[in-house]
């Protein structure tokens, strides 16, 4: 596996990154990439219903529409921007999302390679619903890429084991920009009276708060958290699960809470997007309780030094799960894993944290170190630059 270095070239590499959206959590990444002297950056992005496009800040960006339709019951896409970037004379390198459902991807890779460009495929390198055909289709595209850029070391090593030359494999550890999180955390920690007033106003003072921050969706399995809290409240009558977020499951979740008789132990506060308003919830909580399919929310919680409890089906989570170290005996531990589909074990792990302040502190310190030392924007961009430079040598 190749690691980034500090080399620079005399002339910046004219680079076009083509992505399906301009997600808010990517803005800081592109801004940092554009600031690197090796890179002359443009970002071309499409649009998806599930993710709202952000405003570009510190880099050149242009909207390029995506066509979507259904083929044999599967969604397929065509992003003409991929092919346009591949044939542009004013681009030395292109970075394309590694998603085989884009029918435009294979021809774009072939054209870019024929044009002698640096061609980076960037993505998970794996599907949550993987099978032989999907792996074959995904892997055959790699022949026309000069570099493969993964979100994590695990899937990068798997590619090498599969036969991809190690000098073509790079890692850009998926990261959140921690700047706003750090500023909000420092603000509230420096004002304990304001934090206490917030807790009083929200009715959470004296409660043992478990926090969930994300959209309320079926795959997040909030039914398991509801059952875990029902089991937990006997020994911890002051437990309170706070759900921050909205979504299609909200009414169903409210109904499940009523059926379980745990209305006193849940508080749904709706979606909050402002980091300053989110911070006191994170700083009030004892643990971040995320039943299933956690992604960037893991790094969000870690930025506040909050230990995470989620299930042990690591392949069912987003790529950020590689940052999760649930063995409490290890110095880098930052959470606890419960047995998948087992609300009793979920309750036991949550109860263990509520009962043991020293364990919470140990895991919380590990959580904060995780994002401070590895899963940050600087390290992510280092990996991106190294992958782009690979095709220019």
UniProtKB/TrEMBL annotation:
Signal peptide span: none
EC number(s) reported in the record: 2.4.-.-
Domain Glycosyl transferase family: 205-369
Gene3D superfamilies membership: Glycogen Phosphorylase B
InterPro entries: Glyco_trans_1
Alphabetically ordered keywords of this record: Capsid protein, Glycosyltransferase, Transferase, Virion
CDD domains with a match to the protein in the record: GT4_PimA-like (cd03801)
Pfam families: Glycos_transf_1 (PF00534)
Molecular-function GO terms, alphabetical: glycosyltransferase activity
Protein name: Spore coat protein SA
Organism name: Botrimarina mediterranea
């Amino acid at each position: 596996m190749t690691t980034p270095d500090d080399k620079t070239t005399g002339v910046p590499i004219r680079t076009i990154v083509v992505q399906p959206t301009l997600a808010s959590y990517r803005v800081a990444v592109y801004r940092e990439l554009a600031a690197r002297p090796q890179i002359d950056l443009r970002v071309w992005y499409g649009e998806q219903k599930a993710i709202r496009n952000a405003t570009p800040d510190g880099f050149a960006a242009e909207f390029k529409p995506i066509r979507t339709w259904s083929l044999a019951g599967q969604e397929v896409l065509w992003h003409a921007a991929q092919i346009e970037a591949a044939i542009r004379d004013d681009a030395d390198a292109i970075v394309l999302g590694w998603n085989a459902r884009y029918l435009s991807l294979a021809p774009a890779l072939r054209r870019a390679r024929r044009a002698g460009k640096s061609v980076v495929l960037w993505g998970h390198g794996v599907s949550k619903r993987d099978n032989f055909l999907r792996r074959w289709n995904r892997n055959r595209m790699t022949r026309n890429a000069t570099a493969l850029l993964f979100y994590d070391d695990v899937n990068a090593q798997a590619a090498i084991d599969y036969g991809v030359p190690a000098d073509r494999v790079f890692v850009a550890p998926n990261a959140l920009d921690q700047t706003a999180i750090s500023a909000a955390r420092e603000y509230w920690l420096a004002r304990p009276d304001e934090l206490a007033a917030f807790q009083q106003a929200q009715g959470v003072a004296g409660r043992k708060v478990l926090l969930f921050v994300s959209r309320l969706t079926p795959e997040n399995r909030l039914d398991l958290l509801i059952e875990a809290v029902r089991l937990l409240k006997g020994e911890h009558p002051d437990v309170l699960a706070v759900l921050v977020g909205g979504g299609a499951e909200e009414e169903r979740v409210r109904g499940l809470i009523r059926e379980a008789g745990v209305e006193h132990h849940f508080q749904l506060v709706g979606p909050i997007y402002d980091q300053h308003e989110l911070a006191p919830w994170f700083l009030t909580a004892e643990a971040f309780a995320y039943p299933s399919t956690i992604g960037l929310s893991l790094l969000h919680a870690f930025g506040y030094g909050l230990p995470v409890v989620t299930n042990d089906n690591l392949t069912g989570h987003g790529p950020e799960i590689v940052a999760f170290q649930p063995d409490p005996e290890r110095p880098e531990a930052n959470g606890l894993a419960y047995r998948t589909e087992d609300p009793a074990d979920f309750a036991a792990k949550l109860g263990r944290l509520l009962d043991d302040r020293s364990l919470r502190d140990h895991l919380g310190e590990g959580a904060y170190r995780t994002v401070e030392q590895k899963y940050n924007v600087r390290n992510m961009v280092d990996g991106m630059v190294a992958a782009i430079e690979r095709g220019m040598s």
